[in-house]
Specification:
Radius of gyration: 20 Å
Structural class: alpha/beta
Number of strands: 9
CATH architecture of the largest domain: 3-Layer(aba) Sandwich
Shape: globular
Largest sheet: 5 strands, parallel
Distance between the termini: 39 Å
CATH class of the largest domain: Alpha Beta
Order of helices and strands: HEHEHEHHEHEHHEEEHE
Strand order of the largest sheet: 3-2-1-4-5
Number of helices: 9
CATH superfamily of the largest domain: HUPs
Number of domains: 2
């Protein structure tokens, strides 16, 4: 009953805020999907949903998101902007700068889409941890979330954030109330794999990280189904610009390092590393190094809680 009240309240608030065409970025993550469903209930056809393929998404992400929105009965436009993002991110290695570049390019894409649909409003799936960690006032900047601290100053759209005061567990509860099939989907950062590829972003390095993430996700999900471990709250791989000597067969390689990260959490504000059985980690390591021969030759497991670490690695 309480969750239904929150849904009704959010829909009413959106109806009072939006009186013209609105556009929303739909990444397929739980936050933006919930925001899209709420906004669609509130303003119907005045909402234009856009999925931007940045080239920094998970394996098969575009197809899965398109299918999900079709099942939800919401029209979704897919924009392939991968070349644009890689071009603007060329040579950018600082994690804060990456987020700001991505934030600006997201807005520029939507401004271009705005010309087509005449949008006056930009709906975002911003949740409480996003603006808390992005700093402001007396709060320190932990990391600039692309939809908050990464936004450019000259945004020509009125921003609407229906989930701004909610935490991740509350957003999941709302998703279940809305019958969104991905309500238990693990979090994925707005800037995508850009924050999981430390150092320079190139298509090859991003693809290595994409494949490593898929291996981690697949192995842990299958292990959880077999009852060999609990499924973590979030689990992925990050690619580090740390090279070391290794051996594949009789061949010397000088490859990079993948770090596997898996944590348990309630709302993302704090987290504890997941105690994954060594047998599962060994299978993940073998699969990654065999699949990415010549590119990755070392796999490590992160046993840092949040704090002192963050969940993502950049």
């Amino acid at each position: 009953m309480q969750t239904q009240f929150l849904v009704d309240e959010a829909v009413e608030a959106l109806q009072s805020q939006i009186d013209d065409t609105a556009i929303i970025a739909c990444s397929g993550g739980i936050d933006s999907t919930v925001a899209a469903v709420l906004a669609h209930r509130a303003v119907g056809s005045m909402l234009h949903c856009v999925y931007v393929d940045t080239g920094l998404m998970r394996l098969n992400e575009s197809d899965e998101v398109s299918e999900m929105f079709a099942d939800l009965g919401i029209e979704l436009k897919i924009v392939d902007a991968s070349e644009r993002f890689f071009s603007h991110l060329s040579g950018v290695t600082d994690p804060e700068e990456k987020r700001k570049v991505i934030g600006e390019q997201f807005i520029r894409v939507f401004e271009e889409e705005q010309d087509g649909c005449g949008a006056k409003f930009l709906v975002q799936g911003t949740i409480a941890p996003d603006w808390i960690e992005s700093g402001g006032g007396e709060r320190d900047v932990i990391k600039s979330h692309h939809n908050v601290g990464g936004l450019p100053e000259d945004v020509d759209l009125e921003i609407v954030e229906p989930l701004r005061e909610f935490y991740k567990d509350e957003v999941r509860a709302i998703a279940r109330e809305l019958n969104i099939p991905s309500s238990e989907r693990q979090p994925f950062p707005g800037p995508g794999l850009a924050v999981r590829v430390l150092g320079e972003l190139t298509p090859d390095r991003v693809e290595s990280c994409r494949q490593a993430c898929h291996i981690v996700e697949t192995h842990l999900e299958e292990a959880a189904e077999r009852g060999e471990c609990d499924l973590p709250w979030q689990y992925f791989a990050a690619l580090l610009p740390v090279r070391s000597v290794g051996v594949h067969g009789d061949v010397r390689v000088h490859g990079e390092t993948v770090v596997v990260r898996a944590v348990t959490s309630l709302d993302g504000m704090s987290a504890r590393y997941s105690e994954i059985p060594h047998e599962i980690l060994a299978k993940i390591s073998t699969k990654i190094t065999n699949s990415l021969k010549g590119q990755v030759n070392r796999v490590v497991y992160d046993i840092t809680h949040k704090p002192p670490g963050t969940i993502e690695w950049e």
